[in-house]
Predict the structure.
Amino acid sequence: MTAADPALPFTHWPRAVLGPVAALVLWEVAGRVLTDAFVLAPPSAIIGYLVGNVGLIARALGVTLANAAAGFVIGNAAAVLLATLASVWPRSDAMIRGLALVVFCLPLVATGPILRVIFGPGDWPQIVLAALAVYYTTLIPLLVGLRALPSGWLDLVRSYGRGRMAALVHVRAMAALPYLVAGLQIAAPAALLGAMVGEFTGAERGMGVLTVRALRAMDVEMTWALASVATAVAVVGYLAIGWLAQRYLQDDPPIILAAPPLASRAANRFAGLATLVCVTIGALLLWWGLLELLDLSPFFAKRPLDVLDSLVLAPDAADTRATLTTALGDTAVFLLPGYLAGLAMGAGLAILIVLVPRAAGTAMPLAIALRSVPIIITAPLVVLTLGRGAVGTVVLVAIMVFFPTFVACMHGLRQAPGQVIDVFNSYAANRGQQLLRVRIPAMLPAFFAAARINVPASILAVTVVEWLATGNGIGSVMALSASLSDYDMLWSAVFVVTALSALGYAGVGAVEKRVLAAFAPEQLL
Amino acid sequence: MSISVVCTGLSKTFDAHVEAVQPLDLSFIAGQTTALVGPSGCGKSTLLRMIAGLEEPSGGTVSIGGLPPSETLRKANLSVAFQDPSLLPWRSVRRNIELALTLARRPIVARDVDQLIRLVGLDGFGDTRPAELSGGMRQRAAIARALSTRPDLLLLDEPFGAVDELTRQQLANDLPAIWEARGTTTILVTHSVSEAVMLSDRVVVLSARPAEVVADISVDLPRPRRAELTRSQDFTEIVDAVFAALAEGMAEPQPKAAQ
C-alpha cells in the first residue's frame, strides 16, 4: 500500500491523530519530490486544484451523489423486501440467496453498457448499477439478522397462537435492525462505487466521467483530486451511518463478513444440488422474463438462447469461444496472483498484529474504517502510480482483496473464546501454541467468508482496470464489444464471467469445507 | 374459566433415535396445579412444549379444554413462562408485558400491568430494560408477562430457577393465590421437590428418559401455604414420597425403543 492512502485522515482521528498527520506529511513530501514523474499529486496541489475548480467538482459530485443516493434507496428497499419475503416464507430463502448471488456476480462494468442501451442515455444506468452494488451487502446481513435470535422469542409469539407475520413485526424486525444498519453502512460507499462504475463506462456527467477525462489527459492533480473527494465522501457516508446507529441503537452493529455458505442449511448433498439446479433455472427464467417484460429488442437485449447460440451453435461460435478463452486467460494471469496475494497479506498481517495485542486494539477500528474505502474508486490512482502494465492490475486486485480479508481475519482471530485462552494460559502455553491451536482455527471461517465474497469483488476490480487502462483481458473485450455494439460478444462475456464468478464462489466454499473438516471440524455447521 | 388438559398416547422421538417421551396418557384436572418432577433431561420440558403446541408430538394428541388438537394453539388461552425468560432486550419490563397482551390480542390496561409488576416484586423497575435486571428479576418479569393475559392454562418451565431463595418463598406465597382465584389450570416443571409440593395439588414424578409416569402423588395440604408448612409432618411425608418415587424412576432399567 502506498503511504499516500487518502483514507487515513478520516479514520478515528482522536485516537490516532499522529499517524494520519505523518501520512499527510509523507504524501506531501513524496508528491513534491515526484512532481516530474506524473504519478502523485501532493495534498497541497489537490487542495489547490479543488479550490480552483470548485464549481466543476461540485456539479459532478452532485450528479454522482444523487445517482448513488437513488441507487442506495432502491437497492436497499429491494434487499429489505427480499429478506422479509425469505423470513415470512422460508421456502423461498435458498432461491432468494442463490439469485442474489448470481446477480451479485454480474460484472458491473459490462452491465453498465447493457443498461445504457436498455435505458438510453441519462442517469438510470448509474442508478441501477448503484442499486446492484448495494443490495447484496444489505440482503446478507439482514437475512442473518432476521434469523439470529433466541428461539425463546419465537416460542413466545407462537405460544399465543400467532404466526410468522406477528413474529416478523414484533420480534424479528427489531432484532434485525443492527444487522440492517451494518449492511447499510457498507452499502453507503458501495452505492458510490456503483454509480462511479456506471460513469466510468459511459455516462454523460458525474465524477466518474471527469475521472476518465482526467486519466486520458494524464492530468495528475485532477485525477488525485477526484479520487480524494470520492473517497472522502464514501468514508463520510460510512461514518455517518455508523454515527446514527450509535446514537439511536442500543447495540453496536454486528460485523457481518459475508454470507454463510449457501449449502450449509441444506440437509444433504442432494438438496444442495437441487438448490443449484433451481437457482440456475430461476436465473435463466428471470433473465428471459425481464427482457420479454420490458419488450426489449433482441438486437441488443440478448436472451439466454441467443447466448447459447453465439457460444455454441452459431457458425462463428468457435471464434467467440476462442476470443473469450484467450481474454479470460489473460485476465486470470492478473487476477489469480492478486487474489491470492491479497488473501495471504490480509491473513498474514492479521496474525502478526494479533501476536501484539496492543497493536490489535488500535488496528481493528482502523481496518474496519478502511474497509469502507471503495478501492475501485482509487483504481485510476493505481493506474497512474504503477502504470498500465501487469503490476498495477495485480496490486489493485490485491488491495481490493486485502482489506476485507484483513478485517475478517482480525475479527475471527479475536473470536477465540476467552476461557479457552485462559485454559491455555493456565498451562503456560506460549503465544505460538495459542495461535496455532485456538486462534487460527477460530479464524478460518471468517477467512473463508472473505475469500468467497472476494471472488466477485476481485473480478470487479480486474475488469474495471482492464476497461479503464490496460486494454487487456476480459474487461477489455467487454469494453471493445460495447463500443462496437457487438452485443452477442458482450452478453456472452457477461454470461461467462457471471458463471465463472459464481463457480469460483462455490469453489471456495468447497475448499472451505475440506479445510475446516481437516483443521477445525468444530467450526463446521 | 377452568379447563382440563388431556394427553393421549403422547410421545416424542428426536432424530428417529432419541426417545424423549414414550407414549404417555396424562390428564391435568381443570383448576388444579400439577407439578412435573423428574431427573434432568428426562423430557419434562419436551412434554410441556408439546402441551403448549411448540413441539410437534411424534405420536398421540393433546387436547386442551376439549378443543381438537389442531385448534389448540390458535384458540387455547394459554401462557408459557420459559426457563429462559426470553424478554425482548429493546423493550422495558412494562413493554414486554404489554407485548404478550398485544400478541394475545387483549386490550392493554395500564393499571393491571402495574399491579402485576408490583406483584412479582418489580415495583419501580417497570421502565427498566432487561439488561439492567438480575437473572431472578428477569424471570419474575417473565412470570408477570405470562400472567398478564389471564390464561386458562399456565405452563411454567422452571420459572424460579434464577430467583433467590427469599423471593422464591414470597412468590410461592403470592402466585398460587392468583391462579387459584382465577381457576387457572397450572402445570409446573421443576427440579425442586419442595417447591413442587409447596405449590401444587398433585405431583407427577417422571422417570429418566424416555419419560414415563413413575408416581402420581396428590398433595392434600391446606392453602394458603406458608413457609412454616415446610416443617410440618404432612409436608415432609409427601416430600419423602416424591423422593422415593424419583429414586425408583432413576433405578428403573431403560425400556428399549423396540419394546
In short: The helical segments of chain B are 44-52, 69-75, 93-103, 110-119, 135-148, 165-181, 193-199, 233-251. DSSP finds eight helices and nine strands in chain B. Residues 136 and 228 of chain B are 23 Å apart (CA to CA).
